[in-house]
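Lab manual, section 2.4: Encoding a predicted structure.

Procedure: take the sequence of the chain (189 residues), apply the prediction step described in section 2.3, and record the output as structure tokens. A sample record is shown.
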Amino acid sequence: MAVLGLDQVLKRIKKDKLLENLGARELENPEGVGVDLRLGSVHKIIKGGAFIEADGKVGLGKRKGVTTKEIYRFDPDSDNQKTLTVKPGDYYLVQTWESLNTPQDLMPIVYVRSSLFRAGLLLLNTKTDPGYQGGLTMGLTNLGPFPVKLQLGARICNVVFLQISGKTVSYRGQHQGGRVSSHKKEQQV
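Recorded output:
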């Protein structure tokens, strides 16, 4: 695998809509090898009860996520964005404003921006499979001793694209399209 250079990323953004809703900075003057993604929405967990079953002889296990409530959403037309105060120990599910349209030959990898972890914030994420479409949902918690203010629309992570050589299988999971949580019991796919 090789990392896709910015010239190729920008070309595929324009040609294939690799990323949608990018800010002007990322389209006109990105840096490094990836593009920054912004905080688009914040979701609070309002009910637990999550479980993930093991696969068995009769097939794939079932699962259920937590119940969430969206508490903030970025408004790209407003000059006055809301601010989330993340207190020590708080945990939220956050989603990027930008959406991915991941082709079969690329695998996005997300890295937290250093300004977050320098303030005590930890962004929990995973790889993104080819074929995934939608915003990226990640966990956000404050491991530091002080509250941190995070404004909607702030750049929170950087996505880098790895070029895949060989066969891939498209993402077919339940979070396709950017679903934040599966709050009802359902069959794993």
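Check your result against the sample. The chain has a mean pLDDT of 94.
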